[in-house]
Design brief:
The protein is an alpha/beta fold. It has 9 helices and 8 strands. The protein has one domain (10-216): Alpha-Beta Barrel (TIM Barrel). The chain has helices at residues 22-31, 47-64, 74-80, 94-101, 114-123, 147-157, 173-179, 188-191, 196-216; strands at residues 10-13, 36-39, 67-71, 84-87, 106-111, 127-130, 162-165, 183-186. β1 (10-13), α1 (22-31) and β2 (36-39) form a beta-alpha-beta unit. The protein starts with 9 loop residues before the first strand and ends with a helix. The relative contact order is 0.16. The structure holds ligand LCLJCK34, the ligand Cc1nc(C(=O)O)sc1CCOP(=O)(O)O and magnesium ion. The site of the ligand Cc1nc(C(=O)O)sc1CCOP(=O)(O)O has 15 residues, from α8. Ligand 3NM binds at residues 110, 131-132, 136, 138-139, 142, 165-168, 186-189. 4-amino-2-methyl-5-(diphosphooxymethyl)pyrimidine binds at residues 71, 110, 139.
Length: 218
């Protein structure tokens, strides 16, 4: 993907929990129209395991015309020809990720306040993941939820897309877009759904409707 193209509004992130089936869920989400897949692999997995899974998923993304991003392991992103990567506080800094992945890669950085958002923008981020928006049990050790208001303030601080993450569901995604987020990222809302295809369709409907509504009200 060319990083100058608009970034999709629904980022589906693979579930690292034991028993999750990332390939089945990703196939369903992509078939339903998810525009972005982020491959997130638990730290205990070897690079070879991460490579094998990511290669399968990048090929699926190609089949469906979706953007494929790789969380943390930028060498895996390069090796499989992914569109870019996502980095946070414990990963390579955004400016170094840009050196690794190159000038046209899609590079996301995690931020939790407007000051960090501006710094990541200056460092060369293409988009920001901002959260946790709401409470989540998917990841341990996160700070308290910051809510839609703070996500909106982050979005207002930068001129790149902001993606709200953390506890996002079809019931809450619209609030984040209304507050100013470009889109949302989800793990559990799709991975734990009885029907990941239907859950993706519902989230896409909510996000696209909220974005249209926001456009009309400006
Ligand atoms: C879209 C998006 N936003 C935030 C994150 C979190 O990244 P990070 O802080 O590096 O934490 P891990 O995902 O690596 O545990 C994300 N992955 N995606
Ligand atoms: C991986 C991740 N990062 C977050 C952050 O706020 O940085 S929240 C999160 C987990 C998102 O999973 P779910 O959609 O199931 O809440
Ligand atoms: Mg990370």
């Amino acid at each position: 993907m060319d990083s100058s193209l608009p970034l999709g509004r629904l980022h589906v992130i693979t579930d690292t929990r034991p028993g999750a089936d990332p390939v089945r869920v990703a196939r369903a989400a992509l078939a339903a129209g998810a525009p972005v897949l982020q491959v997130r692999v638990a730290d205990h997995h070897t690079d070879r395991e991460a490579f094998d899974l990511t290669l399968t998923l990048v090929e699926l993304c190609r089949e469906y015309g979706a953007t494929c991003l790789v969380n943390d392991r930028l060498h895996v992103a390069l090796a499989v020809g992914a569109d870019g990567g996502h980095v946070g506080a414990h990963d390579l800094p955004v400016h170094a990720a840009r050196v690794v992945l190159g000038g046209t890669a899609v590079i996301g950085g995690t931020c939790r306040n407007p000051e960090a958002a501006r710094a990541l923008r200056r460092a060369g981020a293409s988009y920001l993941g901002a959260g946790p928006a709401f409470a989540t049990t998917t990841k341990d050790g996160l700070p308290e939820p910051i809510g839609p208001g703070a996500i909106g303030r982050i979005a207002a601080a930068v001129d790149i897309p902001v993606i709200g993450i953390g506890g996002v569901t079809a019931a809450t995604a619209g609030e984040l877009i209304e507050a100013g987020a470009h889109g949302v990222a989800v793990v559990g809302a799709i991975s734990l759904a009885p029907d990941p295809y239907a859950a993706t369709r519902e989230l896409l409907d909510v996000v696209e409707r909220a974005a249209r509504q926001r456009g009309r009200s400006r």
